[in-house]
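Researcher: Here's a chain I'd like modeled. Treat it as a single chain, no partners, no ligands.
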Amino acid sequence: MSLRQRLARLASRLQEPQKVARFQQLCGVEALPSGSAAASADRREDDEEAEARLTGGSRRRGRQPGPPGGPQPPGSDLNQCPAKLGGGGGGAPNGVRNGLAAELGPAPSRRAGALRRNSLTGEEGQLAQVSNWPLYYLFTFGTELGNELFYVTFFPFWIWNLDPLVGRRLVVIWVLVMYLGQCTKDIIRWPRPASPPVVKLEVFYNSEYSMPSTHAMSGTAIPISMVLLTYGRWQYPLIYGLILIPCWCSLVCLSRIYMGMHSILDIIAGFLYTILILAVFYPFVDLIDNFNQTHKYAPLIIIGLHLALGIFSFTLDTWSTSRGDTAEILGSGAGIACGSHVIYNMGVVFDPSLDILPLTRPPITVTLFGKAILRILIGMAFVLIVRVVMKKITIPLACKIFSIPCDDVRKARQHMEVELPYRYITYGMVGFSITCLVPYIFFFIGIS
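Model: Modeled as a single isolated chain. Structure tokens:
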């Protein structure tokens, strides 16, 4: 057997959903027994109670037949993204059954739980028995390290409280890595692990393709870039960074297998792909950041380039949640870059001179801590207001311009003409606020 055949065989084994299911079982996650009459009755009862709570009445609904018990063939609807399915098919995308969320009582030997549903697609996490709750919460935290809530707090914290230069350059790397990862998914088009046998604890990104894992890419790029950008600029022992990188990276990567969202091969590919991207593009990060701040026509070039990349990515495949994610990433990157250009030319924020490097951690005083907390509270409140206002404006406006019905926002956002401007403009303004408007407010009230 040749080396190529051995590698192909190894890749095939690493892609098997049975290995994901085995890891989940090892961590104490199991699907509810579907063959048991008692389990079926319990789930039916829970569905009826949930329906009654939502409708305010006693109307009960019948059970829909679930998916077959065995693994699905490659062409099955259970292995397809929703954009590929015909109307009214029997299977749910990527092996997740849609239905009302149920709250389960304690099982005889295990406790049961399910994660939140996807508000955009209507999919819901699979009901599962969880016996190891410390691992459940640990991996839930790990998977949140690659979600919007983390990004919208992590990058502003760096820019407002720690080091604006490091924060800006982290965003440059994050945008590049995530964009390439999302586009690669839509080119390769591999489905997520089939369920059964995998238990889908999370479905928020289930309508996207699987290869490579962008959570793994982000979880690899951010800690490595943090160490590369701060070591030598800040005074701290290198061992701290060498401990942070494997801990952060492994937590995020393992959490995606635990949640049933990626195969082992997806995770390994995401990790290696990120190392390649960093090796090629990291030497240019300093040049890109300086260009964003100092070039006369930087804002026009930034906006045009990011918008063109967004339009290109939308042509790679039909609609899924990755369309919005890609526009959100590009919009945030463009907004942060344009904001840094404006604030730099206003002279409000200057990076420390190279003569005083390496920087040392200032003593933590009540005043320093109080200002940091105040900046976070004021800044996040302002960013949240900007996000809400821009969302209220952009979706109806895009629907009106392109004559798309706006009665059902979820369906309207499945059109590129709505989703692209909504995400790009809204998160572009969020990014601009983070690097320009909010720091100016801090400067004005004297807490910068």
